[in-house]
Specification:
51 residues; elongated; 2 helices
């Protein structure tokens, strides 16, 4: 069986999805000054440094 087998994995996927939606809507300035194709990677790099 594939998919979300535990509550923890479902929680991680939901939080990641919400983060990406909010980032696209401009709620975060993470990765803002990088190239368009690298903004998601830059945002996660900046986020790991902040946490």
């Amino acid at each position: 069986m594939h998919g979300l087998q535990t509550d923890r994995t479902a929680s991680v996927v939901i939080r990641g999805h919400a983060f990406m939606q909010n980032r696209r809507r401009g709620h975060f300035e993470l990765g803002f000054h990088s190239l368009p194709g690298l903004r998601v990677a830059a945002a996660f790099d900046e986020l790991t440094q902040a946490v």
